[in-house]
Design the sequence.
């Protein structure tokens, strides 16, 4: 049987063509344009070498802050979602918890909502005077905890990251629960006979066997975090000032201002960062067959 | 741990679980309640029942928020793209997973790298202009198809790998051409992965906000997300209307979620566990 004839490569050409034209090509063109002064105000495009990259990396530019924010956001939300999701999964697989399925469903439900809508939900919840949270804190006598959640420079970024964790923790929980269910109960039986308590079992059985699932979830969270846009845009639009700006909100800002070269340069910086991680990302995806 | 300690542990565990469920649930309940209040009452958001139930909030929102046209736009974009994705991805996954050599191998890694790679939205605008796809419904459908192909291909590839090759051999002996083999033998076996792709991609596209923000500047063509965002900006002082608007946007997804819970949870976790 001739495999080449039976499985003609051009069956894959539809997917390849669409991906090439609308995902790959813009990435490559974008890198080419990052060496120019492309903008909306003149039709003339001049080669400027590394000037755009110098504007980002030299001195103390706002762009460096966006890159730093993106990295902080990625690291913090990845850790928070993994820790909270893992803890929830362990809790909601214990036999003594009541209404497990209902609670799992509730905690997972934000996953099906759009990031934008979750952002708007919390923008109304966290409004300093009319929002639910501050009113609730005052009603139960904890008024001193009420804050300007989305305008106070010191707490706005943690607020944004917490809202993102609120949305994403249920996903990790569900994935980890699926992983826990696939662990054979015999391991735990043997361990209990040997007298291992819950934490010893967690350390020696559950976590090691969940490693592929956790690595995979981490990869997903990292690639999401680096590319985050909707959540930040709808909650704060990068403000107040530049305090919560991330790479992709900055790209949109430059795009709206007409500084297309800067937009595409920032996008390319992100492209190179992910490209550097790509090998590990693909490797972890392929290793995951538990 | 003694018996009392154990019972105490169980109670604490239950309280923690319920507390977290409430943290997720309460924002949604508050919005639901406020969506029935008068403008003055909703000005201070609380977890109390409306003193007077104002159902007109919803009809006002549907009229002012262009929700009907944006609902159908969203439906068209998601359905159109999903059909394209399922067609091109199952064909590609079929030949790639059956013959993972040479050009197929290259194409596979080339495409799935897109799972992680960011989209350059600025230069994508240039490409969309060149292809005359900007500000068109067809353009946004093709774009959504393209950006969701990588993950879909990855999942479909893993699934087709589990279909035994002996089936192909039997079909070839019976005189099937490659096209017949795919359409008559393989395609009917793909139902489970097609439903997973359908759920995952439909949700991703329905919830997306970035692409219409960049590439659709005509409000007639906006999907739900963009319509809601603009409504929020225009009516920020009428929280009752904003709440009703958000509820109407969430409702379709939440209904689908409660009904098709099994598929969705399965589909969403497929990416991470099964493969």
Sequence:
């Amino acid at each position: 049987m001739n495999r080449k004839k039976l499985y003609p490569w051009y069956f894959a050409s539809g997917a390849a063509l669409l991906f090439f034209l609308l995902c790959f090509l813009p990435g490559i063109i974008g890198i080419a344009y990052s060496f120019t002064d492309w903008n909306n105000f003149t039709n003339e495009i001049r080669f400027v070498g590394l000037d755009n990259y110098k504007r980002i990396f030299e001195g103390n530019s706002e762009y460096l802050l966006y890159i730093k924010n993106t990295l902080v956001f990625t690291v913090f939300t990845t850790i928070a979602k993994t820790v909270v999701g893992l803890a929830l999964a362990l809790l909601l697989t214990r036999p003594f918890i009541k209404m497990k399925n209902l609670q799992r469903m509730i905690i997972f439900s934000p996953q099906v909502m759009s990031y934008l809508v979750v952002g708007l939900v919390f923008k109304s919840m966290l409004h300093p005077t009319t929002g639910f949270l501050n009113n609730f804190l005052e009603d139960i006598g904890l008024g001193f905890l009420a804050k300007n959640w989305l305008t106070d420079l010191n707490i706005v970024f943690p607020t944004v990251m917490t809202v993102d964790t609120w949305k994403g923790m249920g996903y990790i929980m569900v994935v980890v629960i699926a992983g826990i269910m696939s662990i054979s109960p015999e391991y735990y039986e043997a361990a209990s006979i040997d007298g291992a308590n819950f934490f010893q079992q967690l350390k020696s059985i559950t976590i090691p066997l969940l490693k592929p699932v956790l690595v995979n979830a981490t990869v997903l969270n990292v690639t999401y975090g680096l590319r985050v846009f909707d959540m930040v845009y709808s909650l704060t639009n990068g403000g107040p000032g530049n305090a919560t700006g991330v790479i992709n909100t900055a790209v949109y800002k430059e795009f709206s201002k007409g500084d297309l070269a800067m937009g595409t340069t920032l996008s390319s910086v992100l492209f190179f960062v992910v490209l550097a991680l790509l090998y590990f990302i693909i490797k972890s995806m392929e290793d995951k067959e538990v | 741990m003694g018996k009392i300690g154990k019972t105490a542990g169980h109670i604490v565990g239950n309280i923690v679980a319920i507390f977290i469920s409430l943290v997720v649930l309460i924002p949604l309940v508050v919005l639901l309640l406020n969506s029935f209040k008068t403008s003055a009452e909703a000005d201070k958001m609380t977890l109390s029942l409306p003193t007077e139930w104002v159902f007109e909030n919803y009809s006002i929102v549907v009229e002012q928020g262009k929700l009907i046209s944006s609902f159908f736009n969203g439906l068209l974009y998601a359905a159109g793209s999903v059909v394209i994705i399922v067609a091109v991805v199952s064909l590609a996954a079929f030949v790639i997973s059956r013959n993972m050599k040479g050009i197929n191998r290259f194409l596979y890694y080339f495409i799935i790298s897109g799972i992680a790679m960011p989209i350059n939205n600025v230069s994508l605008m240039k490409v969309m202009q060149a292809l005359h796809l900007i500000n068109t419904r067809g353009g946004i459908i093709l774009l959504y198809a393209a950006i969701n192909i990588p993950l879909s291909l990855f999942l479909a590839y893993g699934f087709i790998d589990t279909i035994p090759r002996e089936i192909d051999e039997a079909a070839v002996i019976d005189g099937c051409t490659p096209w017949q083999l795919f359409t008559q033998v393989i395609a009917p076996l793909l139902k489970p992965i097609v439903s997973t792709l359908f759920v995952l991609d439909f949700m991703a596209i329905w919830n997306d906000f970035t692409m219409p923000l960049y590439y659709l500047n005509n409000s007639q063509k906006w999907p739900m997300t963009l319509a809601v965002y603009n409504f929020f900006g225009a009516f920020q002082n009428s929280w009752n209307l904003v709440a009703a608007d958000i509820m109407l946007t969430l409702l379709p997804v939440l209904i689908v979620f409660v009904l098709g819970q099994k598929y969705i949870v399965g589909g969403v976790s497929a990416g991470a566990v099964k493969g």
